[in-house]
Amino acid sequence: MGTPTLESDEHRALRDAVAALGKRYGRDYVTRVVAEGAHTDELWTEAAKLGYLGVNLPEEYGGGGGGIVELSLVLEELGAAGCPLLMMVVSPAICGTVLARFGTEEQKRTWLPGLADGTRKMAFGITEPDAGSNSHRITTTARKEGSDWVLNGRKVFISGVDIADATLIVGRTEDARTGRLKPCLFIVPRETPGFDRRPIAMELAAPEKQFELTLDEVRLPADALVGDEDAGLLQLFAGLNPERIMTAAFALGMGRYALDRAVDYARTRQVWKEPIGAHQAIAHPLAQAHIELELARLMMQRAAHLYDAGDDMGAGEAANMAKYAAAEAAVHAVDQAVHTLGGNGLTQEYGLASLITAARVARIAPVSREMILNFVSHQSLGLPKSY
């Protein structure tokens, strides 16, 4: 199947429109929100009213009828303007996609319109203290009691639980036929008894907070289970591929923002006769960073197109590669941008130093670069596993 590499006129128009929105907010807006301990509510609401947050969700539930191609484009452009919305990765991309593909009709009617118009948010809880990137070691369990489900377990590094109406929790149920534990997804409303959260102190300066969750005999009705109990693994990975694609978009936007600031500085900063950007020691590393970002974007676009076309297997490989490439490109771009500005790169005035920490997030989350290399070596190259 051929994969388009050039964007349509509609996609370019969408880029321009989102870029204009991002420009009206920018990095200063995010910096102020973080300093105040607030959230990016104004930008979130306006992006929702313009149809950007739900662009990937079905039209019959209030969405734009597009796909991850369009949603990743939105996040990339907001990031390039310096004001990315991390909850876009979680709420419409992961949770919205899973519910749209596998949710019951009641779940779709209950959640998708709100996720599309921004009035509701959903977090995603998969990571555990002792499981890390290994989803097969998840210990959060769900047992059946009558028609109810009862969940017990812990989650860690879960974004935005305080502002989410519910969290899509990945647990495991016992297969009656084999006795083995199998993954299942449950919608857990924020104020459910036994569902407790504790903020994690982070060095990362971001509007979205990270939480550790404790589920202690959390009782849920039967309709809290998403889709088919026996299709949990399929449903899980249907959400993880968009997560990787959107993380790539997040990283690309950040890298583009840093690079643009560095290029503007290199054009005007004059120490000797010519601006510093005339010197190859400055110009070539910036050109290299630009090339790396553009290559990563192509892989992200390929992954998004494959996913929207229904090729989950092909999208899995491409999404992992895109996330890897974008994270590496973003880290390099941020590092080179700070280096280009010298001492100014570490000042609050130019706002680049905080990106040094932020850029590394894409290398670590939602899956480490080493686990992606494992995936590619095993799945793409056919090499044996070491674990």
Structure description:
By secondary structure, this protein is an alpha+beta fold. It has helices spanning 9-35, 41-49, 68-80, 87-102, 105-117, 232-268, 280-308, 312-341, 354-364, 369-380; strands at residues 122-125, 141-145, 148-159, 166-174, 181-189, 195-199, 210-220. The chain has ten helices and seven strands. The strands form two sheets. The chain has a four-stranded antiparallel beta sheet with strand order 2-3-7-6, with no helix packed on it. Strands 1-4-5 form a three-stranded mixed beta sheet, with helices on one face. β4 (166-174) and β5 (181-189) form a beta hairpin. α1 crosses α3 (68-80), α6 (232-268) packs parallel to α8 (312-341) and α8 (312-341) packs antiparallel against α9 (354-364). The longest helix has 37 residues, at 232-268. The protein is globular and about 80 Å long. The two termini are 33 Å apart. The model has no long low-confidence stretch (mean pLDDT 93).
